[in-house]
Write a structure and sequence with these properties.
The complex is a heterotrimer of chains A (about 400), B (about 170) and C (about 450).
Chain A lengths: L1 H12 L12 H23 L4 H31 L9 H7 L2 H21 L10 H5 L6 H32 L2 H29 L12 H26 L8 H32 L2 H13 L1 H18 L9 H27 L9 H22 L12 H5 L6
Helix pairs in contact in A: 2-14, 3-4, 3-5, 3-8, 3-9, 3-13, 3-14, 4-14, 7-8, 8-9, 9-10, 9-13, 10-12, 11-12, 12-13
Chain B lengths: L3 E6 L2 H13 L4 E5 L7 H4 L7 H27 L12 H27 L20 E6 L5 H13 L3 E6 L1
Antiparallel strand pairs in B: 1-3, 1-4, 2-3
Helix pairs in contact in B: 3-4
Chain C lengths: L16 H9 L8 H27 L14 H25 L9 H22 L25 H34 L3 H10 L7 H34 L11 H27 L8 H32 L2 H12 L3 H13 L7 H4 L2 H28 L14 H24 L5 H11 L1 H8 L1
Helix pairs in contact in C: 1-15, 2-14, 3-4, 3-7, 3-8, 3-13, 4-5, 4-14, 5-6, 5-7, 7-8, 8-9, 8-13, 9-10, 10-11, 11-13, 15-16
Classes of the chains: A mainly alpha (about 400), B alpha+beta (about 170), C mainly alpha (about 450).
Amino acid sequence: MQVLKVSLTKNRNISVMENNTFTLTKKLITICVAMIAVGIIAIAIGFATGVSGTRIVANLHLNNYYFVGMGLIGLFFVAVHAIAESGWQVSMQRIGEAMSVFIPVGGLLMLLVFLFGGMHALFEWTHEDHLDAILLKKVAFLNQPFFYIRFVVYFSGWILLAHLIRKTSRKLDLNGDVHYFNQLRKFSAIYVVFLAITSSTSAWDWLMSIDAHWFSTLYGWYVLSSMLVSGFSMIVIILFILKRMGYMSHVNNEHIHDMGKYMFGLSIFWAYLWFSQYMLIWYANIPEETIYFYERIKYFDTVFYLNLILNFAIPFLLLMARNSKRVFWILIPVAVVIFIGHWLDLYQLIMPGVVGQAEAGIGIVEIGTTIGYLGLFMLVVFYGLTKSSLVPKNHPFYKESLEYHTNY
Amino acid sequence: MNKYITAYYTDENDLIKGVKQIREKGHNILDVFTPFPVHGLDVALGMRRSRLTRVAFGGGAVGAIVGFGFQAWVFTKAYPLNFGGKPYLSVPSFIPVTFELAVLLAAFSMVIAFFIHFKLGPGAKTVVYDERCTDDRFLVLIDAENAEADEVKKIEKALSDAGAEGITYKE
Amino acid sequence: MYVSPIREPLIRGEKTYSQVTKDILAPMAGKPSKFWYMGITLAGIALLFGAWATYQTVYYGIGTWGLNKTVGWGWGITNFVWWVGIGHAGTFISAILLLFRQKWRTSINRSAEAMTLIAIACAGFFPLIHMGRLLLGFFIFPYPNTRALWVNFNSPLLWDVFAISTYFAVSLVFWYVGLVPDLGTVRDKAKGKIRKAIYGFLSFGWTGSAKHWSRHETISLILAGLAAPLVLSVHTIVSFDFATSVIPGWHTTIFPPYFVSGAVFSGFAMVLTLLIVARKALNLEEYITVNHIESMNKVIILTGSIVGIAYITEFFIAWYSGVEYEQYAFINRATGPYAWAYWIMMTCNVVTPQLFWFKKIRTSLVATFIISIFVNIGMWFERFVIVVTSLHRDFLPSSWTMYKPSLVEVGLYVGTFGLFFTLFLLFIRVFPVIAIAEVKSVLKSSGENQKHAHHE
């Protein structure tokens, strides 16, 4: 241990000539608030032009889920690398921590949507007076009190663990004590296990129960894989923004390359799960299962095929070459495509069940709400970034991360 | 090649430094023999990036196209059969075989290209300059085919300046 | 490359490069030990039992097995899936851990990959013998024939043919490409003339040229990139054999990733079982250290937990579906006549690996060895539960029946163990069990002597 202290103090002496503390400038706040305003105005226009309330609620639900997922994956990025004892990601782990600040905000919005009319609009199983024979069998799970209990369990677990991980990480930054590092790993392990379970169950609650008659065992993992790709792409986008603002100069091409590999690999993984679920249902051809894809292929065909092109074909082909994973001018467009693609993926999970083909569409309301949420998300992330130094200097693997170089 | 100079290092970091130094002096290193892949040596020797990845991509593309095309041909042209009421061109069930053939051809084309390019293979005849190159020595080989006596001296001087051991000139 | 001082060294005992060569080549030299002879004798006996069972099956047909009209797949398919699953650990270690830059893989990848190849050979035997008429086995390949008929590309069983043969071929290439430089080392260290000639032939003329190394690294990396999705695809396609059907308990969409996870889970257990013995017997304790064992145990917790979550998910969704057949299939598993198999599976796969959360247990060799065997047993029962309990009571109660293996089926299973251990014991005599060059390449950053240098 003695030896360790010495080398850690050595780490502290590496002076990185850059601005380590993020300042939330007026300009940034203005941009984010303007984006939020766009969202509110879009919803207002929606109401004014006679877009149905159901469609607006479905949109809010979609974005709540999407951005809460981003926060969860931001934290997952920190946690999974902490338990794997990996070193390279340390240079950018603050981004993941900052993303997790959005979890309570998203949770609150989600709760508001549920409390004020969302439940009835979104979930057929809440129409307690006209449940059919199949839905009656599911009442033990699909009932409002239990639904809210689960909601509270998920969010209190996530928020608590996010808080503990961020706090421990900050403490670790103050003096580099290995004790805090071990504590960080412990909380991370708990979070990863908790997320492994709750990501599936929450996907059943908030997404799969929209089509309450339908079921698929893979569903939770499929949604998790979608969350993983979009979350990791979001980290790359935020990294890019920070770099443009003159921060994070210690993050070099090697780190970016690794993020590119994640985007590439996870896109393939997502496609693998998509194919597994689709092919098995298509092959077995059992009517109560195939109805789900039948609806989507027949009435939402553009979104259905676009989903595969944006989320598999484009990342796969564009990121295959080594060099394209190392440069922002390819990585950022692909990250944006993935961002849009997985938004569409959620769209085709939610809309056919909630809104139906007659009313659904992608118009001012959809685009506007998403811009609004993006603004809010960014504002929260920027706020989270101001909380601690951008450079986790005293992390035991910080120096490894700086000197990190890979051939592949 | 009849005339050459060899010298060795026992540490890979010294090797990289030495190689850079020797090349800076303008001597052309023919090859370096090491017991394991030394990180950064390809850069120090000025090698370009491998193009074997393109061979793999080509092989994979051919595998995918042939795999899918063949299945499509069998079920739409050669011998259309109805299986479980599925369409003849049932794309989802062609994916697994297409994928497997793509991987198979990508892997084999690349590995075969590698062995053919370097003329390696079962029983291939190659020159082993120092048997300890596969154990613990990092051997530098410099061509001295057309070198005059003073040129040889110069190379030997450069090698010893660069910290190499066991400098030998063979005719 | 800089390595943080809080990381434990991977290779113990302040090794030099030539010491590494010597240590790893040592088990190949001299006469085999007593234990080796004992092992190969036992394996030979098992192999003979298998040969008898094969003869019975081929001569009399699969009527000698315990299968019946309702349960058409029994031990044969259970063993097939089990062996393929075991193979997955080798590829996981050599390909996926390479992509994730896990340096600890260098000490175990060679033997794990050898295990993979042998396990696939054992697995491939079962579908072939299941045909009864081994000599017509080539029918499964699409080749031009006088009937102008091609194979059925819509069948998951055919996808298996392609998946397993591609997997074997690519694994073999990957393994051999990695072996070539080490065979060069064996050649250069060989004493006898014949030995030198044989290894000279096998080493493909490897010299250690920097050009060769550079490209060798490239192809290893691309092969890893290809093998990673390949290994996922193999057990995925094996799971399709079940999941494309409409049998309750078989048709479930979670099967592909859950089978893959279970495969890696059982494979790592087998690697642990083998290596805990081998590291001791071959004096390689400084290369395969407790840290390596601990890392593998962590993979076991991860994959075991994924499998556990999948079991519970399946059970829950069966209830949630509201389909009575689905619900019955799962209730029958847990409480029906084969409930004992189900509870063995649950205990071995879900409960025992969770013990590895305790550092004391996951760093204990004895505990690890015992748990690894539990996992092997549990994973065999998982396949048994899936295959047999789903089949023996399906839609038509009048067809309900029980299944019991015959001695011939037991003989075939024991026979593959014989094959497995015979080939593995031969492997450790003929090839270096640890990737010499790869260990050397991490010695600087992760060897014990270098650690000391950093500290001072």
